[in-house]
Design a protein that fits this description.
By secondary structure, this protein is α+β, with helices and mostly antiparallel strands. It has two domains: 143 residues, Immunoglobulin-like (Sandwich); 299 residues, Purple Acid Phosphatase, chain A, domain 2, CATH 3.60.21. The protein has nine helices and 25 strands. A hairpin with a 3-residue loop joins strand 22 and strand 23. It starts with a helix and ends with a helix.
């Protein structure tokens, strides 16, 4: 690994020049392909990315798209060949591996290279070549060996980046941070538009595969998002807006016919795969795609990424006006149905077995929303947001009771979706001081998407004593640091809406002490140790 100042200098330079590089390359001529296809504009307008860091390798991504907002990306419908390189240094003086890969129109000329055989726990640089053009240089790293003693893990936890509602300035800071990887837990893009909150515009609501491809390309044209992808490997899971707000399994709030919705879901999943650094074996099969996975990080930590959309039961307490989710509802009988699941039975068992047998210290659950309770008490009784974990209380209790019964320690749930920074205690019986705290939770605010007004957040905080910190007025991300003693969450934040010249500051810092479930403000934890 290069010395820390060199890494930071590289990341800073990468972030500063991303926009200028994109503009300068637009007019660059490109030579003919061997098969006769000719590219007259730069094919790497959407940048490069890496992801899924393993001890032996990573996944590299790019997509050839000289005119990315056109249906075909500006390319003819033929196969095209690329070369890729992975090196120890950004100048490629010591190339570790290189190879060739073909791509074609059936995958929008996207490329997913699963590089294996790299030394573990190392930083690398990579790039692509096609028809005489070279991509920007990306930086990535492999995970430590599974039995390695690791002193520190640093992760940026991020979620919810509505293009129209603000600028991706948060990603500019993420790109400059010294990180092991970015964990993005959902709502990578939005299919919806809110004209009253609009700072900038994107295309119309996506429905077809061409629509979703255009939407992803629109997001990737943002230089700060491209810089964050190029600076660090990413680990991802999804929520609902990548397809449709509040969808549940094969159920849609807008399309009553499940088969019609599954056709939309198939298009959305394919475009999602085509535009992100996911392994080739993860390519969707129609409307089905496995995204849940697990990532060891030496002996220090293991991360499970969970899918809380594809396999979930429909939301409870429906009305004719709101057949699915997205609403505060009075409790109904269906909430008590023990068969209902947020993750689906197979994924629940997979997670339970993995947690019960994990030999690593910190167990991190990367999932899309807030697990701690956040219903509100009113004069007419409690009201619950039925699209979140409050709407699946039996599933939440199974997960947390399983952690307690198996005596699994140092579990930290990581989430997004709700557009607020949260630090919370997790109990088998929520908000009941008689029920022991069995796990801890950190939730990130959004990159740009609007949060709840202050009066609503006041009701949420006063109704839920398990929430030690909850603020929805600012946007940002969580800088998560883990060592043998603590898991530390620094809530980085800036005012809403996020402007192009926004600056972030630390809103709060919370920690979880090793061996002791529950969150504490950092200054309170320091006093307790004296």
């Amino acid at each position: 690994m290069p010395a820390l100042p060199d890494r930071r200098a590289f990341l800073t330079q990468l972030s500063r020049t991303a926009a200028a590089v994109a503009l300068a390359r637009l007019a660059a001529p490109v030579a003919a392909q061997p098969d006769g296809a000719r590219i007259t504009d730069d094919p790497f307008t959407l940048g490069v990315a890496s992801g899924m860091p393993r001890p032996e390798g990573v996944v590299l991504w790019t997509r050839l798209a000289p005119r990315p907002l056109e249906p075909d990306g500006g390319l003819p419908p033929v196969a095209m060949k690329l070369q890729w390189e992975v090196a120890d240094d950004e100048h490629f003086r010591k190339v570790r591996q290189r190879g060739e890969v073909w791509t074609g129109p059936q995958r929008a000329h996207a490329v997913h290279v699963e590089v294996k055989g790299l030394p573990s726990g190392r930083t690398y640089h990579y790039r692509f070549h096609c028809a005489g053009a070279s991509s920007p240089v990306g930086r990535t790293r492999t995970a430590p060996a599974e039995d390695a003693e690791v002193g520190l893990l640093r992760v940026a936890l991020a979620s919810c980046q509505h293009y129209e509602q603000g600028y991706f300035t948060v990603h500019r800071e993420i790109a400059r941070q010294d990180l092991d990887f970015v964990l993005f837990v959902g709502d990578y893009l939005y299919e919806t538009s809110h004209p009253q909150r609009r700072l900038r515009r994107h295309g119309p609501r996506p429905i077809t595969l061409a629509d979703f491809r255009r939407q992803h390309a629109w997001y990737k044209l943002d230089p700060d998002l491209r810089a964050a992808h190029a600076a660090h490997p990413w680990v991802l899971t999804w929520d609902d807006h990548e397809v449709e707000n509040d969808y549940a399994g094969d159920r849609s709030p807008l399309l009553p016919d499940p088969q019609a919705f599954l056709a939309v879901r198939a298009a959305a999943y394919q475009a999602y795969f085509e535009h992100l650094p996911l392994a080739p074996w993860m390519a969707p099969q129609g409307p089905h795609m496995r995204i849940h996975d697990r990532y060891p990080w030496g002996r220090l930590a293991e991360l499970w990424t969970l899918d809380a959309r594809q396999y979930r039961s429909p939301q409870a307490c429906a009305t004719a006006q709101r057949p699915l989710g997205g609403r505060l509802a009075a409790p109904c009988a269906l909430l008590g149905d023990a068969q209902r699941s947020m993750l689906g039975g197979d994924q629940e068992r997979w997670l339970h077995d993995g947690l019960s047998t994990c030999p690593r210290q910190w167990k991190l659950l990367g999932q899309s929303t807030q697990m701690s309770p956040w219903g509100v008490d009113t004069p007419w009784g409690r009201r619950l947001y039925t699209d979140g974990w409050d709407g699946y209380p039996a599933a939440r209790e199974r997960l947390l009771r399983g952690i307690a019964q198996a005596r699994v320690r140092d579990v930290v749930v990581l989430g997004g979706d709700v557009h607020r920074h949260v630090a919370a205690d997790l109990r088998v019986v929520p908000n009941d001081a008689r029920s022991p705290v069995v796990a801890s939770e950190f939730v990130t605010s959004s990159i740009t998407s609007a949060g709840l007004p202050d009066y609503a957040m006041g009701l949420v905080r006063s109704s839920n004593p398990d929430l030690q910190h909850a603020r929805s007025d600012e946007r940002g991300y969580v800088l998560l640091s883990l060592d043998a003693r603590h898991a530390r969450a620094e809530f980085r934040a800036t005012a809403h809406p996020v402007l192009a010249d926004a600056r972030l500051a630390t809103q709060a810092v919370y920690v979880v002490a090793a061996g002791r479930a529950g969150v504490q403000a950092e200054h309170a934890a320091a006093l307790a140790r004296r």
